[in-house]
């Protein structure tokens, strides 16, 4: 907004002065304005004709080819700048009018006067290039710079009034018609604000088509080429020198697309780019922001369509061969330097150490580090550490366990289904029993599927061990050193399952007796003990019979953290005999006492 003070000698006649000596009011009814001859609406109300934001142009053949090689969608560089026209029109309407803007037919001048004369006028420039100010008369403003408007009107009003102040600025601006031709999405004539530029005109028409160039755009005026616009100058370098203002009857002509290549893989912006003559590999990489932070900086693969009948892929050494020229249809692939696993001897290991160590946390260790070196990095064991019960979990082992565990469950489910299908039913009681078995086995399978392997590796330790074995660590390993427990858990088919205080010298049989011993339905021949280190000792592996003088478990010393589990005799319950296999599945995969309690419940 411009402000000025008029100090003319005085009005040209007495009628210009208010009889009471107060300010003269120039009413809007005195304003003789004209509207544009075509009766068009203001440019900020022009309806949008652009594409919907959710609408995407179909991939070109080369874009589709590059996308198939990349495994993800690869678009032409600059295509995302062609935004919906509605947003562009709104932004143009809200732009500040530049100082060098030339006023013309159809523009609206907002004029405010105060002091000896008061007025608030909206005046439209007529076909003669004039505005008419009440009691002042016509003023020629066409071709006047916006920066000079305030001074011009002050001089003109000052010929009639004195002791006033004036503010003049532009309101609604005229619309202009321009044309878009060539390889464009929607060629034709368009109306835009007089502030519109080449970029505005391109977006309004939907931008170049798949066959149109983003780098060969001509602005033609009166049959002459005013400027050539390269969208990459704006997109890559931020240079707007070619984005000049449009004038009425300008023509935007879009030429055919030039040579194209695709850059995929570990680049900052995978895209199809349009080449200029002489562009090199380095130029192409610069268009997409260069190689990504994880890219292999030493090499780049080039697949040349021109050699499709021969060797199609060559590898360039970077940066030595970065100045090599690229050709139409080439596909440049940058490699990722971190996705391929390095040899263990070269990998630094990220290890988590928790529990009874001086400084629990995550540690990055040298490639050849062992478990004890990991513990030493965490400050060593505390006085409460129970080294025998160390839980050592490895991610690579967990993945293998998951595959094997799922396969074991599928085999178990197949056995259940086969036995149910072959079981003979002679009466309603048999049918009811089969139905109950099917329901029970389904619940069992669901519970087993809910339990997942942890990747625990059983360490070969003695109960009194104070050191871990010299096993090299891997990336993602987890060590948990528990405090020394004072109880032994007894669960399953016993009279009173729970955790019991361990007395020195107690055997597994002693702990079982504290729980009341096995029930009548217990399968005493399948009793097993899960040690705190994850190992399992069972009656089947130590001899026949249950915990008595014929079994090693009768005299087996109980250790802190043991879990004794007594399975049920399956042929005495609704479960079929083959369901015994689930106990083996559980302890073979080191799922622990928590899983046993889950299944028991």
TrEMBL record:
Domain Soluble ligand binding: 178-224, 264-310, 351-386, 488-536
Domain Polysaccharide export protein N-terminal intervals: 97-169
Keywords: Signal
Region (Disordered): 1-48
InterPro entries associated with the record: Poly_export (IPR049712), Poly_export_N (IPR003715), Soluble_ligand-bd (IPR019554)
Regions of compositional bias (Polar residues) in chain numbering: 26-41
Official protein name in the record: SLBB domain-containing protein
Source species: Pelomonas parva
């Amino acid at each position: 907004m411009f402000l000025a003070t008029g100090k003319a000698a005085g009005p040209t006649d007495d009628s210009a002065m208010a009889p009471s000596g107060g300010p003269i009011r120039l009413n809007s009814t005195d304003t003789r304005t004209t509207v544009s001859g075509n009766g068009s609406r203001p440019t900020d109300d022009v309806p949008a004709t652009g594409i919907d934001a959710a609408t995407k142009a179909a991939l070109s053949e080369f874009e589709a080819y590059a996308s198939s090689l990349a495994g993800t969608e690869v678009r032409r560089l600059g295509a995302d700048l062609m935004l919906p026209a509605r947003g562009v029109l709104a932004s143009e309407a809200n732009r500040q009018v530049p100082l060098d803007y030339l006023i013309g037919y159809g523009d609206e001048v907002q004029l405010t006067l105060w002091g000896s004369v008061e007025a608030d006028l909206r005046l439209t420039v007529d076909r003669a290039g004039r505005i008419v100010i009440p009691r002042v008369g016509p003023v020629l403003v066409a071709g006047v710079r916006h920066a000079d408007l305030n001074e011009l009107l002050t001089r003109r009003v000052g010929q009639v009034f004195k002791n006033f102040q004036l503010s003049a600025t532009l309101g609604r601006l005229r619309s202009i018609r321009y044309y878009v031709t060539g390889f464009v999405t929607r060629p034709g004539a368009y109306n835009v604000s007089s502030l519109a530029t080449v970029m505005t005109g391109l977006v309004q028409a939907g931008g170049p088509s798949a066959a149109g160039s983003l780098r060969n755009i001509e602005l033609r005026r009166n049959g002459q080429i005013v400027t050539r616009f390269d969208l990459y100058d704006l997109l890559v370098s931020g240079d707007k020198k070619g984005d000049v203002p449009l004038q009425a009857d300008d023509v935007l002509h879009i030429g055919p697309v030039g040579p194209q290549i695709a850059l995929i893989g570990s680049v900052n912006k995978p895209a199809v780019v349009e080449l200029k003559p002489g562009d090199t590999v380095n130029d192409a990489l610069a268009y997409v922001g260069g190689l990504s932070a994880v890219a292999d900086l030493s090499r780049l693969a080039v697949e040349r369509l021109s050699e499709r009948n021969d060797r199609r892929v060559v590898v360039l050494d970077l940066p030595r061969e970065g100045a090599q020229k690229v050709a139409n249809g080439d596909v440049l692939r940058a490699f990722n330097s971190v996705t391929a696993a390095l040899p263990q001897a070269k990998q630094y290991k990220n290890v988590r150490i928790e529990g009874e160590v001086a400084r629990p946390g995550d540690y990055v260790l040298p490639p050849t580090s062992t478990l004890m070196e990991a513990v030493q990095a965490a400050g060593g064991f505390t006085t409460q550490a129970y080294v025998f019960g160390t839980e050592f979990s490895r991610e690579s082992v967990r993945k293998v366990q998951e595959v094997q565990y799922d396969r074991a469950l599928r085999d178990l489910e197949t056995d259940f289904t086969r036995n149910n299908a072959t079981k003979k039913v002679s009466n309603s009681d048999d049918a009811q029993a089969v139905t109950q078995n099917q329901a029970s086995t389904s619940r069992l399978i669901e519970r087993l599927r809910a339990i997942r392997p942890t990747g625990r590796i059983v360490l070969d330790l003695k109960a009194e061990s104070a050191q871990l074995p010299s096993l090299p660590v891997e990336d993602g390993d987890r060590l948990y050193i528990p405090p020394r427990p004072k109880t032994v858990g007894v669960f399953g088919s016993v009279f009173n399952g729970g955790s019991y205080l361990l007395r020195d010298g107690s055997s597994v049989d002693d702990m079982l007796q504290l729980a009341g011993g096995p029930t009548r339905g217990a399968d005493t021949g399948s009793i097993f003990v899960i040690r705190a280190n994850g190992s399992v000792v069972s009656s089947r592996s130590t001899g026949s019979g249950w915990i008595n003088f014929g079994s090693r478990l009768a005299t087996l010393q109980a250790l802190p953290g043991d879990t004794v589990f007594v399975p049920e005799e399956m042929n005495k319950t609704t479960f079929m005999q083959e369901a015994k296999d689930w106990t083996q599945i559980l302890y073979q995969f080191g799922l622990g006492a928590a899983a046993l309690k889950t299944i028991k419940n």
